[in-house]
Structure formats: structure tokens, C-alpha cells
Amino acid sequence: MTNNTKRRVVVTGMGVVSSIGTGADDFWSAIKSGKCGISEPTIYPIEDLQIKIAGEVKDFDPKAAGLSKQFLMADRYSQFAGIAAREAVKQSGIEMPLKPGEGARCAAIVGSGIGGISTMEDSYRGLFELKKRATHPLTLLKTIGSSAPAHVSIEYGITGPCFGVVSACSTATHSIGLVYNMIREGMIDFGLGGAAEASLAWGTTRAWQGMRVLSPNGLFPFSKHRNGTVLAEGAGILMLEDYERAKERGANILAEIKGFGMTADAADMVNPSIDGTAGAMELALQDADVSPTDIDYINAHGTATMVNDVNETRSIKRVFGDSAKDTPVSSTKSMHGHALGAGGGIEAVACIKAMEENFLPPTIGFDEPGDECDLDYIPNEGRSADINYVMSNSFAFGGLNAVLVFGPAPA
Amino acid sequence: MEDVAPKIIEILKKNMKEPPETIPLETPLSDLDIESLDLAVIVFDIEDTFGIEIPYNANEEVEDFKTVGSVVDKVKELVAANNA
After folding, report:
1. What are the residue boundaries of the structural domains of chain B, listed by start?
2. What gap in Å lies between CA A394 and CA A330, rounded to an integer?
């Protein structure tokens, strides 16, 4: 079966929680103004840490956010998922919770790099350090990496495919790609896809510190002074829908998912390969049936590590050839930080808003181009441009690559 | 302090698949069969062995991590600071 005979898949809702704003509108105005959400964290002690910055979702109050009781009993990561899912559902205009019998044609694929790790950390501190006799009875349910999709399914009566994807920093992009494929193949008619992450904690930061890849002072992608990535948290979730269904109910269509590509480097846990990352971009372009010159903006993985940014630049050049230098590329992580599994979801929202408003998001904190970083990274200030097709890259530890191509709402 | 060098060489060897018989102090780390992740493990091992904290960032090229000898000197400096 060729692409043409398959169903088209559109985005009818999106939700975001991030260090620079919760809700797509607040998030987008922060992106447009080049706001930075990286600062000293408040939710864990930093005195004895080498790394004293993070992209925290500040002043987060689940009760004030109006979450339901089941979400209030969940881990912070599930709560982020609940808020992003609620926004996506509301924007889609789909009447939810679904009535009995309606839910089987809907999916909830909400992943996380690591799930409710902070709950686990608190629990272990209680056991090992404070010598508590027992853990909180909800420790397990809060920790498991499938709790967010489960909570979302309960909230909205989603009885179709429901699980979490785990692929580190590619999690959200893989999740969105899976929902896209399920709808395209006719398995379901609509569904939520994305991810949530809330792994900012003392122990987790220690573990990351041990990898020696974190920057002590900021996330500066593709830039000469870049010196590592900065951990962040949040969620990004899209409502995807069969185009015919969306059209029939008169939905406001935000964008179309044109293509999805995924590969694995099968090479190294930390050093990315050009073959793997370029391969995922090529597959996404083929699936979208568009050429590199059609892409008006690339939302890069852009972690600001030495190896990622050079590898990604080389990969873009391999795939885009002569047009690479004319294709604007930015890493919005420079603003919201590296939200790990949730990154691709947050960045998908940035991509759709960029198309909607014909505005290229900047890479902030850019001093001068790093060695071998010679593309147009939209340094420091965003700018207006005609944007029809957008590519979003996610490349994870272990060499797990996922790439989405978004296009305009079908005419 | 004189046992710092042999201990570090031992740690380097432990983390290499096929370590050479001897590792002279002037050997550049880039000449050893050590990848970035290995180096993170080696730094952890050194910190654990000597009870020190080494401010090493894999994204930066620093003089302290040029040769085996420069690592030994850095560790001696940190151990001395710890005992001061």
C-alpha cells in the first residue's frame, strides 16, 4: 500500500508544561521573546552539587492547577502529563471523557524517559537514610513509567491502546510517531501522543553529574562556548486525529503530520552516529514525500554537548546537501532546557506554533559558532519567515533516533 | 603521595579492554584505548579511591586531562587540598 492510500493524520490539540511557560500560548510568547527558563532549582537541595542549575517548572501547584483527585495522588511527572493532556483535549474540541463504547478507537501513548523517579528517590531516602518502617503505599503506582498514560486513560475514558514509550530523549517523538502510524493504518481514529518528565532531584542530578555531560552555567547549542546540557522537566502532548474525522466534525486543524522516521545507531551508548541520525531524517522526509528544500525550519535536538551538536550539523548537511546552509535550524532547548523524554513533545508544540505564526524560534545564548557548526542557527533572536514544513529531531542516548515532519493543515 | 601514580595507572588499566604492559606518565590520554564514557568511569573510580571530587566536564578540553601525568598531578593537588 502506498502512502497515498493511507489515512492522513492531523493535529487538533496540543498541550505543554515547561520551565518557560505552561500552556501553548504562554510557552510560545516566551519562545518568541527568547526567555530562558534555566535557573537555580528550588525543589531539591543543591548545596553539595557541582551542577546548580536546571529548567524547573517553578511554583508548580497541582491543586491550584485544578487536577482531579487521581492525578493529585500521582507523581509530578504524571501531573505534568495530566495538565498537557487536558490542554490538548480541550483545544481539540472532542467531548471527553469519552462515553462507553467510544473509547476503543482512541489511544493514550504518553511516555517518559524514567517515570516517577523522584517518588522512588524519596522513598529510598525514607528507607535507607531515615530508617522508616514502610514506604508510602502509592510508591509503586506513582513510580512506574506507565502511570501517566494510565491516569490519562482513566481521566478521559480512553480504552484503546494505552502505554508508555521509553527511549530516553526520543520518547515523546517516538510516542507521537506511534499514534500517527496507528491512525494512519486505521487501528484507531484519534489519540494523545507525547511524554512527560519530572526527574529533577538530588540523586538524579548526582547520576547525571557522574556522566560529566552537564553544563554548570547554561545550555548554549551550536555555540563556541557551549559546555554541556542542562536538565529540565515538563510535558508535551498532541491530540492527533484522522483528517476525515476532524474535517467532518469541523475541528480546528493546527497542522498535519506528514512524516515520521526512526532508526537506531546500533553503535555506542553516548556517541551518536551520522548514519543513524541522518537516516531517521531521510526516512521522515521520504514518508512525508517532501524534499529537503521544502523544509522551512528544523527544530534541532541541539543538546549543547560537544558531540551532539557537531554530529547533528554534519547529519543535516548530509541529508540537506546544498540547501543545508539555507535552512534555518534552532534548538529551543536553549530556552526550556533539556526535558529529556518530554523534549520532543515540547518541541513539537514549538514547531506547530512556528508554522502557525510564521516565526522562527531562536537559539539563545549564542556567542559565536562552535567548531564545525556552520548553519543558520537563528542566533539569539527569532524572526518572521514563511513556514510550511518543519522537521523536529530527537536523538537519544543509546543511539535511538526519531524524526517528525509537520506540514500545514490540509487545504 | 607516591602511591597516587601507580593507583591511577591501575585504574586506567582496569578500565581498558587490552591494557598495555606499562603506561608511562607522559602518555597522552588520547593515545590510550579510552572513550568518553570510559573516562567518566575512570574519573569516578579515581574520586572513589582518593575520596576527592574532580571537576571534570567531558565537553571541555582541559590541561588536567591531557596526559596520565597531568591527571596524577591534579589528583595529588586535590588530595593535598583535602588534607589541608
Report:
1. 4-83
2. 13
Report pLDDT for A411.
Answer: 86
CATH architecture of B4-83: Orthogonal Bundle (1.10)
Question: Domain A9-248 adopts which CATH fold?
Answer: Peroxisomal Thiolase; Chain A, domain 1 (3.40.47)
- Dump pLDDT digits (tens) for A200-257: 999 999 999 999 999 999 999 999 999 999 999 999 999 999 999 999 999 999 999 9
What mean pLDDT do residues A364-385 have? Answer: 98
H or E, element range at A241: strand A234-242
pLDDT at A5: 73
Neighbours of A124 (CB within 10 A): 13
Contact B36 A210 (CB under 8 A): no
Identify the residue whose cell numbers are 500545514.
A408
Phi-psi region of A398 (alpha: psi -120 to 50; beta: other; left: phi over 0): left
In this prediction the ipTM stands at: 0.85
pLDDT in tens, A37-47: 999 999 999 99
Inspect the interface and report whether the beta carbons of B44 and A228 lie closer than 8 Å: no
Interface check for A307 against chain B (CB to CB < 8 A): the answer is yes
Contact A213 B59 (CB under 8 A): yes
Q: What is the pLDDT of residues A156-178, one digit of tens each?
A: 999 999 999 999 999 999 999 99
Is the Cβ pair A215, B59 closer than 8 Å?
yes
- Going A207 to A208 to A212 to A217, the CA torsion angle's sign is negative
Q: Which CATH class is domain A260-407?
A: alpha beta
Summarised one tens digit per residue, pLDDT across range A265-295 is 999 999 999 999 999 999 999 999 999 999 9
Q: Where are the domains of chain A?
A: 9-248, 260-407
Best of B57, B61, B62, B71 to mutate (most A CBs within 10 Å, chain A): B57
Integer Cα distance of A24 and A18 in angstroms: 10
Mutate to test the interface with B, among A51, A53, A212, A303 (most CBs of B within 10 A): A212
Higher pLDDT among residues A99 and B37, named by residue: A99
Of B44, B53, B57, the CB nearest to A228: B57
Topology agreement, domain A9-248 and domain A260-407: yes
Query: What is the H or E stretch that residue A391 is in?
Result: strand A389-396
* DSSP H or E stretch at residue B9: helix B4-14
Q: Tell me how far apart the terminal alpha carbons of chain A are, to the nearest angstrom.
A: 24
Question: Would you please indicate which residues of A are annotated as catalytic (active-site) residues?
Answer: 169, 301, 338
**Is A138 within 8 Å of chain B by CB?**
no
Contact call for A227 and B59, based on CB within 8 A: yes
Distances (CA, A) of A384 to A137, A328, A342, A369, B15: 52, 11, 27, 22, 51
Per-residue model confidence (pLDDT) at position A278: 98
